[in-house]
Amino acid sequence: MSEHTYIFSLEELGYALAVHQGEEAAAGLMKAYYGDLPEESWELLFQAATHSLMAKGFIEQLDEEQGEVKFTPEIEQMIQHLLHSSYMLRGVKERKTSQTLTIHELRQKYLYHLSDNNVLHFLSWTEPADWGEELVRLYGADPAAAGTKLPESKAVVTEAIWNGLTSGKVSASSLPDALTPDQRQLIDKWQQNFQANGGTMDNVSILRLGRGNEMAIENILFLLPADEGMWVVRNMAADRNAEPQISIELQSGPACRKTLSAFAEELIT
């Protein structure tokens, strides 16, 4: 990652987006945290953000009477990159603290954007060689975790069984005979971890913005830490239109690092 990391508050980033004709993006960012506010409240928030950005040196020139704002060249480039990128990798972690890591691609240049509880936003230029490490750090994949002590480390189930497992309507003991006892034991362990985590998993995805600003998911992994490593859940079907084949796998720390690095590389292929 670049040596220069810029830290924005939510209000500062919202203001920076708004003055670069990114009003829609700014509104989505701000309303997710504040909800609907009267216009005078938005004005007060943005006024405070303006002075804070000036104090940080992010704004070079400000003419409030003429409504002209000039950001430093690198900040300007980053904001334009955020606004015009339509292809990205996004990692979401909801455990303990809510964090979202987005790597925005634009003309084969990549911007790292970490949102911490949607309150602080970290922006920096990044390179593909850094992404595996960044994702490992985000999800807390323990590099020392040697891997499962269970007899089996992977099981593949249908979408219907997966939906039953996640809803709690299906237990490992009632799985089809096609799965071995060792695979049932593995799935039972995953289900225990899943329920202990409130019935949720983290995820990392490759996203593409299409017409009408609709976001399409091109690929996705679901992740959940375990004592022995990291649960990795994904659709193994090569054809996206085919019946999903859901892989539930318990990976060691080093194996998870490789999985995350390989997944992130899809952004450059």
Shape summary: elongated
Distance between the termini: 20 Å
The structural domain count equals 2
Overall mean pLDDT? 90
Annotation field: number of helices: 8
Helix content: 25-40%
Description:
Helix content is 37%, strand content 30%. With 269 residues, it is α+β, with helices and mostly antiparallel strands. It folds into two domains: 6-126, no CATH class; 143-206 and 221-266, no CATH class.
Question: What is the strand and helix layout of this fold?
Answer:
Elements: E1 6-9, H1 10-18, H2 23-34, H3 39-56, E2 59-63, E3 68-71, H4 73-84, E4 87-93, E5 99-106, E6 109-116, E7 120-126, H5 128-139, E8 154-158, H6 159-167, H7 181-196, E9 202-209, E10 215-226, E11 229-235, E12 245-251, H8 253-264
Antiparallel strand pairs: 1-7, 2-3, 4-5, 4-9, 5-6, 6-7, 8-12, 9-10, 10-11, 11-12
Helix pairs in contact: 1-2, 1-3, 5-8
Q: Which short descriptors sum up this protein?
A:
269 residues; alpha+beta; 10-stranded antiparallel β-sheet; two-stranded antiparallel sheet; 8 helices; 12 strands
Question: Briefly, what is this?
Answer:
By secondary structure, the protein is an alpha+beta fold.
